[in-house]
Design goal:
Blueprint: H1 6-19, E1 23-25, H2 49-52, E2 62-70, E3 87-96, H3 101-113, E4 125-130, H4 134-144, E5 151-154, H5 156-159, E6 160-161, E7 166-177, H6 190-193, E8 201-214, E9 220-233, H7 234-241, H8 254-263, H9 279-303, H10 312-330, H11 342-349, H12 355-391, H13 397-407, H14 411-420, H15 427-446, H16 456-459, E10 466-467, E11 474-485, E12 488-490, E13 492-493, E14 497-502, E15 504-505, E16 519-522, E17 528-536, E18 542-547, E19 553-554, E20 558-563, H17 565-589, E21 594-601, E22 604-610, H18 617-632, E23 637-643, H19 644-649, E24 664-670, E25 674-677, E26 692-701, E27 704-711, H20 713-740, H21 748-758, H22 767-797, E28 806-807, E29 813-820, H23 824-837, E30 841-848, E31 854-859, H24 869-874, E32 881-884, E33 888-892
Parallel strand pairs: 1-2, 4-5, 10-15, 29-30
Antiparallel strand pairs: 2-3, 3-9, 4-7, 6-7, 7-8, 8-9, 11-12, 11-14, 11-20, 13-19, 14-18, 16-17, 16-20, 17-18, 21-22, 22-27, 23-24, 24-25, 26-27, 28-29, 30-31, 31-33, 32-33
Helix pairs in contact: 3-4, 8-9, 9-10, 9-12, 10-12, 11-12, 12-13, 13-15, 17-18, 20-21, 20-22, 21-22, 22-23
Length: about 900
């Protein structure tokens, strides 16, 4: 058998399928785009969902890829088993309505066994098929010639791919036999037929024959377009070709493990331990494997724009780093070290993922800072565990879960430390609680649709349409070429709402963060109908949503299509503004800034970006200044069409690997300042943007920011005027209250500050000054208001100040008093006056008003050993609701 590197295996896979007419799909980010059902991209097919359900037409009916993915449902098994990985690469080939079972099986067999390709001995390969899939069984046995003792019919649990609602179907799996040395009990093919966990027969390929739709209630119907979805794990294949005990001894992980050996306190990784296991060495090997796996997953996630935090993806990263750090401690490493392993990850993966080199410094910095934080936390975890062992002499499931989630302690480490002190850990309760946590996490997403049902209308929607909106905003001879209502094609309609396609349209469909155009279609009879939305069809057709208002429309009608010019112009200004602010942020904050989403319409722009540092007001001001300077330079917009490779190499265009690009891409360039791949509409030159203003920056989680901005003079002037009006109204309202009570308390300072606010000139440049003056005014108002309340309270309680204590039935001095229209605050002030005036006193005060009735009980400190305010309060005949303590209790009745 050939000896192949992981890079050779990946490239050979892709090259093979390209020779079979497959289009290579570049790997995309680990962060799902427009798919709330996924926390991470978790398979090779996950990024291709819109192609399979018909929402988009793929660049080819045959696709191949190598897609990085993360699965986090069983992190605890990583490092313990031979083939669990947090992040893995899935090699895939896909047919979308093209070839089906026969070709898929033939392709697999040729790639695996041909001497030109993988050249695996045929006797080493075993097959499983779904027991009801006679067609696949006969293809393998009659077409390929698989002996019957090398193929097994299996049940639904193992050989039917189904995720609930959406496409599904039977699958066939290919296994590689590693030989008897990996079969200590000599069970042979019983391991396969009984689906037993083993290290002899390794699954290396899974072909899903996607031929049914599941409606979500396990009712299955034939798909109008049948598909092939294939997956083969690169890590497993590499292990086979490099003949290693597990995935971890391959060139994907072993260099990292060797680096950890150098950093450890004399620990070594043992290959021999697989065959001659020793408990101590097994624990050591596990530590090495956990670290090598986790640092790779973390490095890729950070490169894709995720940073450690306390929720969602950020929490997964934090947990992986903490778990690695704990295992580092087991190897005698008690200082930050994971960041030193990033270089090994980059070396192993940079051939196929060259962007890792650019992100290396950012990845190292992020991991280092998280390690430093955790090492402080870790010492607290050890303290907590020591305390539990010393005081409780046991570790409950709840305590073990707390150590696991808050301090990063793997349960194995907790068990080991406790065992050394002869203390038991309630592992059963821990596992139950952990399962509950996982189920809650899954439930948070279970109602989100993982797959859309394949839409038959879209799969057959092949009508052609051309977008002419880059050059013009109208088409006087637009022909209606397609109509549909409620997912049904029609030839004519008077329905209230209709979807239609024009042969040539100036209307931009919503995509790439740019809102859809709106406007009108002018019919032959002189009436007009409103186009309120435009979305992109599977072949790139612009599908117009139209309000017909009882007008009739037919396929073949010629209409005049006219885009709302003002909406388009304002949207273009904001879209171009997004490109400029992105470039400016990268200039001010550094090239680690990476856009992760945007939205532009006629009202403004917002952009999400990743950056793992605090952003200062000065940096924002500098960013805004740079954009306005570029606007003033009147840089012309340039547009180029070229290949993705040339766009990046020649033009240095920014491409976002959350996106899938066509073979020919569109570049939008503003001089040397900004160059991005973009299909949106833009201004002719930067001066058309007129003006630019950042209105807000908000954090969307650890390492992710959202910036809100405005462009155009009119929009910014309106915003500034509204802002000034709101500030003025706010201070006017407070000042009105001041004048109402001015006779009781005056404040010359407040009046001066009010005048300063009123004299600020309405201008964009004065917003920060106005905000500071308003904040200063409000602080002075707060101080005045407190003085006013004190004066008013003294006036309100004055009629009651001469009340004297009476001796109650217990022989204790008591003031029990009913008042009118005193607030709770007034009553507490009056109670304090009485307690300061008389010693050894119990005070019980009531107040009735139109809105609420209040009661306050207060007890002198000298009496609190015998009489407690809260007890007296609870026993009052009026049955008040409230609370308090020995000193004071308060509530309503």
């Amino acid at each position: 058998m050939k000896q192949l590197t992981s890079n050779q295996i990946r490239q050979m896979w892709l090259d093979f399928f390209v020779t079979k007419g497959h289009h290579f799909v570049e790997p995309v980010s680990l962060i799902p785009v427009n798919d709330l059902s996924l926390l991470w991209i978790n398979s090779g097919v996950a990024t291709l969902k819109p192609y399979f359900d018909g929402r988009k037409t793929p660049p080819s009916k045959r696709l191949t890829n190598s897609q990085k993915a993360i699965r986090t449902n069983d992190i605890e098994n990583v490092g313990v088993t031979a083939r669990h990985q947090t992040m893995f690469e899935m090699l895939g080939n896909f047919s979308i309505g093209d070839y089906f079972k026969k070709e898929a099986i033939q392709f697999a067999w040729e790639l695996l066994t041909s001497k030109e390709w993988f050249d695996i001995p045929v006797e080493k390969l075993y097959i499983t098929v779904f027991d009801e899939d006679t067609e696949a069984y006969e293809l393998w046995t009659k077409e390929i010639g698989i002996p019957t003792d090398h193929i097994f019919k299996m049940g639904r649990e193992t050989n039917f791919w189904d995720v609930g609602q959406g496409p599904c179907g039977p699958n066939t799996e290919i296994f590689f036999d590693r030989g008897e040395v990996w079969d200590p009990k000599h069970l042979a093919t019983k391991l396969l037929s009984d689906d037993l966990e083993n290290d002899r027969y390794i699954e290396i390929w899974n072909i899903v024959f996607s031929q049914f739709n599941n409606d979500g209630t396990n009712h299955y119907t034939e798909l109008p377009r049948k598909n092939i979805d294939t997956g083969a794990g690169l890590e497993r294949l590499t292990s086979i070709f490099q003949d290693t005990p597990t995935n971890f001894e391959t060139d994907l992980f072993l260099p990292t493990i060797k680096k950890v050996e150098q950093l450890s306190d004399g620990f070594s990784y043992s290959l021999d331990n697989y065959f001659h296991p020793q408990d101590a060495q097994t624990r050591t090997n596990t530590a090495f494997k956990v670290i090598a796996d986790h640092v790779r997953a973390v490095s890729f996630a950070i490169a894709d724009g995720v940073f450690p935090s306390n929720k969602d993806r950020g929490y997964v990263l934090r947990r992986l780093i903490r778990r690695s750090s704990v295992y580092g401690g087991y190897l005698g490493i008690h200082e930050p070290f994971l960041y030193q392993l990033v270089d090994e990850v980059v070396k192993a993966m940079q051939v196929f993922y060259p962007y890792l080199r650019e992100k290396k410094a950012s990845i190292e910095k992020t991991i280092y800072e998280e390690e430093v934080k955790f090492l402080k936390t870790l010492s607290k975890g050890f303290e907590m565990l020591e305390s539990l062992i010393t005081t409780k002499h046991e570790v409950s499931g709840q305590d073990a879960l707390l150590l696991f989630e808050s301090f990063g302690f793997p349960i194995e480490l907790t068990i080991e430390i406790a065992a050394n002190k002869q203390v038991k850990v309630d592992v059963k309760a821990f596992n139950e609680l952990l399962a509950e946590v996982k189920e809650n996490s899954r439930s948070a997403r279970k109602n989100l649709q993982a797959w859309n049902n394949q839409n038959e209308l879209f799969t057959k929607l092949t009508v052609e349409s051309e977008f002419i909106g880059y050059e013009t905003l109208e088409n006087k001879q637009a022909k209606v070429v397609y109509l549909f209502v409620d997912n049904q094609e029609v030839q004519s309609t008077k329905d209230e709402e209709v979807y239609l396609i024009l042969d040539k349209t100036p209307f931009y469909a919503e995509k790439g963060g740019q809102a859809a155009d709106a406007g009108y279609l002018y019919l032959k009879n002189g009436s007009k109908v409103f186009v309120d939305d435009v979305q992109q069809g599977p072949l790139g057709q612009n599908i117009h949503h139209v309000q017909l208002n009882n007008h009739e429309l037919k396929v073949g009608d010629v209409v005049e299509a006219r885009v709302d010019e003002e909406k388009r112009l304002l949207t273009m200004k904001n879209h171009s503004g997004t490109h400029l602010v992105h470039a400016a942020l990268r200039q001010v904050l550094g090239n680690t800034v990476m856009q992760s989403g945007s939205y532009n319409d006629e009202h403004g722009l917002r952009m999400d970006f990743t950056y793992n540092e605090k952003i200062t007001s000065n940096q924002l001001a500098k960013t805004e200044t740079i954009v306005n300077q570029v606007i003033d330079l009147n840089i012309p917009r340039e547009v180029y069409y070229t290949s993705l490779e040339e766009a990046i190499k020649k033009y240095h265009a920014l491409a976002f690997f959350t996106e899938k690009y066509d073979e020919i891409v569109r570049i939008v360039k503003f001089g040397d300042f900004s160059c991005e791949l973009c299909g949106g509409t833009h201004v002719e030159s930067t001066r058309e943007i007129e003006n630019f203003m950042i209105t807000k920056l908000e954090s969307k989680g650890s390492g992710v920011y959202r910036i809100h901005c405005l462009t155009s003079n009119a929009t910014i002037s309106e915003y500034v005027q509204t802002l000034f009006n709101n500030y003025q109204e706010e201070v006017d309202k407070l000042m009105s209250t001041y004048h109402e009570f001015k006779e009781q308390v005056t404040s010359a300072s407040l009046e001066t500050k009010y005048e300063a606010v009123k004299h600020v000139v309405v201008d964009k440049q004065n917003i920060n000054q106005l905000k500071e003056l308003v904040d200063d005014f409000k602080q002075s108002y707060k101080e005045w208001d407190k003085q006013k309340q004190d004066v008013l309270t003294q006036l309100k309680i004055k009629p009651y100040l001469e009340v004297k204590p009476q001796v109650n039935a217990q022989g204790v001095a008591e003031i029990r008093l009913e008042t009118k229209n005193l607030s709770m605050s007034d009553l507490k002030t009056l109670a304090d006056v009485f307690r300061n005036k008389y010693d050894d006193l119990i005070v019980i005060l009531f107040s009735q008003s139109n809105n609420d009735n209040f009661v306050v009980v207060a007890v002198s400190e000298s009496l609190q050993d015998q009489y407690k305010a809260i007890e007296i309060f609870k026993n009052l005949a009026v049955h008040p609701k409230g609370g308090g303590n020995a000193n004071l209790a308060q509530g309503k009745y």
